[in-house]
Amino acid sequence: MDSNGDVNVPLKDLNHKEAIDETESSVKCGVFGFQPKWIQRLANPKVLLLNFAIVSVLQGSYLPYLVGSLTTLEKRYAYDGKLTGLILIADNFSSLLLSPIFGYLGNRLNRSRLLASGMLIVSFSCYLTTLPYFIYGATDIHSKNKTSMKLGNEMCYSNEGNEIACDESETTVWPAYITIWIASFLNGVGYTAFYTLSLPFVDDNVSKKNAPVYISIHFSFLEKLNKSCFVGILSTIRLIGPSFGFVCSSICLRLYEDPWNAPDIEIKDPRWIGAWWLGLLIIGSMLFICSLPLFAFPSQLKSNKNKKTKHEECEKENTDKSKGIIY
């Protein structure tokens, strides 16, 4: 106590208290200091893995959905197969460029929040892919606008005599194509973050004994869950994601591009353009919602933190005993 009556606290004790507070904060669920007690029960590997499983399915469905819709997009915006190939490899460019960066950031920042940010980027890429529809609208099959869609190698339109008139000229809708390419590139950014960070994050937050189980289940859909471990693998998550994407694409393309103003034509009609954009909105919205909880997960789960602390104490005790024997 000093002359003013204040209690002097050693600087060492203050630093120790701050370190404890920082450690406690790093193992609690919450965002921006909001860490209520009721949400802390969610900070466990099972909840984390369940969230990863849902996000993995949705993230893995984007590219298959896009692949299933490519022929429709080619016809709608009049670009050829060579340009389609560039769309398909756009995500490889971003993956090649950013994999080392995410690996570097994963050791220094909250991996869960990096993962959530990556999934929000994938969600945004879904929305961005649909942008050409909202800019150009649905195809008017009665219009004489030859830039609206591509049928084989010719541009066709309906004339006043209800006959199909064709012209060999065609014009690619470049703004639409560039938008879709950028969306594919951004999707690569998101899934690179997921596959670079998710497995190390799961591995660091479960015991070494259970890590192989969690990692294998990370790519598997769970049939049953009990107190001790996940039991039964129904099918792999990597197959569920693409399957969901292709099925969703098939269903949406059976609807007309403008579902509320569908013309009186059949799906087999060459003028038919399916609702390619609809599934992307669904996938993007679901992924956006399911990605938000990842922001609340701590950088390290408390249960594993306690296990690591005990392990470090045991190692230190064994080291001290070894030194005592030597000396």
TrEMBL record:
<feature type="transmembrane region" description="Helical">
    <location>
        <begin position="114"/>
        <end position="136"/>
    </location>
</feature>
<dbReference type="GO" id="GO:0015347">
    <property type="term" value="F:sodium-independent organic anion transmembrane transporter activity"/>
</dbReference>
<dbReference type="GO" id="GO:0043252">
    <property type="term" value="P:sodium-independent organic anion transport"/>
</dbReference>
<feature type="transmembrane region" description="Helical">
    <location>
        <begin position="229"/>
        <end position="256"/>
    </location>
</feature>
<dbReference type="GO" id="GO:0016323">
    <property type="term" value="C:basolateral plasma membrane"/>
</dbReference>
<dbReference type="Pfam" id="PF03137">
    <property type="entry name" value="OATP"/>
</dbReference>
<feature type="transmembrane region" description="Helical">
    <location>
        <begin position="85"/>
        <end position="105"/>
    </location>
</feature>
<feature type="transmembrane region" description="Helical">
    <location>
        <begin position="178"/>
        <end position="202"/>
    </location>
</feature>
<keyword id="KW-0812">Transmembrane</keyword>
<keyword id="KW-1015">Disulfide bond</keyword>
<dbReference type="InterPro" id="IPR004156">
    <property type="entry name" value="OATP"/>
</dbReference>
<protein>
    <submittedName>
        <fullName>Solute carrier organic anion transporter family member 5A1-like protein</fullName>
    </submittedName>
</protein>
<keyword id="KW-0472">Membrane</keyword>
<feature type="transmembrane region" description="Helical">
    <location>
        <begin position="47"/>
        <end position="65"/>
    </location>
</feature>
<feature type="region of interest" description="Disordered">
    <location>
        <begin position="308"/>
        <end position="327"/>
    </location>
</feature>
<dbReference type="InterPro" id="IPR036259">
    <property type="entry name" value="MFS_trans_sf"/>
</dbReference>
<keyword id="KW-1133">Transmembrane helix</keyword>
<feature type="transmembrane region" description="Helical">
    <location>
        <begin position="276"/>
        <end position="297"/>
    </location>
</feature>
<feature type="compositionally biased region" description="Basic and acidic residues">
    <location>
        <begin position="310"/>
        <end position="327"/>
    </location>
</feature>
